[in-house]
Design brief:
Blueprint: H1 3-14, E1 17-21, E2 31-35, E3 59-62, E4 67-70, E5 75-77, E6 82-84, E7 89-90, E8 100-101, E9 106-107, E10 117-118, E11 123-124, E12 134-135, E13 140-141, E14 151-152, E15 157-158, E16 168-169, E17 174-175, E18 185-186, E19 191-192, E20 201-202, E21 207-208, E22 218-219
Antiparallel strand pairs: 1-2, 3-4, 5-6, 7-8, 9-10, 11-12, 13-14, 15-16, 17-18, 19-20, 21-22
Protein name: Signal peptide, CUB and EGF-like domain-containing protein 3 isoform X2
Pfam families: Ephrin_rec_like (PF07699)
Keywords: Signal
Amino acid sequence: MNSWWRIYGFAACFIGLAVAQTTTSESSSTITLTLATPSIDTNCSTVNKSLCEACLPGMFSDNATEGCFCCSDGSCVNSSDCQLCPNGHYQPLAGQQSCLPCLPGFYANSTKSATCRACEPGYYSNETGAAACRECGQGYFASHQSSSSCEPCPSGSFCNTTKCISCSVCSAGEEAVGIASIECVPCHPGMFKGPSDQMCMICSPGNYQVEWGEVKCNICPEDHYCPLEFLL
């Protein structure tokens, strides 16, 4: 069999054509080509298998077309096809072998995500691969996007709801004791808190206050005095 026949016969086998040869002599060779249904043919065992190459990373092979295909963004390739990135994961590029987990402060709440979304103010995510952000609890706040944690309300302020983006300052005559307060409490008798003060303060000597939640102390009347240890 000459070299031309070997090359032509290989091409016909590759595209799914059946080859019938009536004679192999160079002087009287007759070749008849007939269409056939593509199938595995044991007669093709002599085909040079080195011509087949594995698909590149990030691509998968389609047995129907015998071609390699690139997975789109929002998906990754496994052994036989493309898989959608699961919740909490993303892939911005096509032809990748794996999906990436969302970083803390971000989330992906649907499959086939090409990007992760930033947590809104008042929410946070402290884990990788989050499918949703969490609400800041009472006494805590998150003022910016993509927060990985919530901050406690500083002393003198409070937050009595969830999802706070800031903490409120207590009104005059009230204070929030400590950090992460969820409410304000009135100043005790003998104390006061003005509009610009952060905390309740003790009345100074010569002044007194017998009420709760007052914004100032009263001056002791004439012929009276109030020592430091008796402010009520």
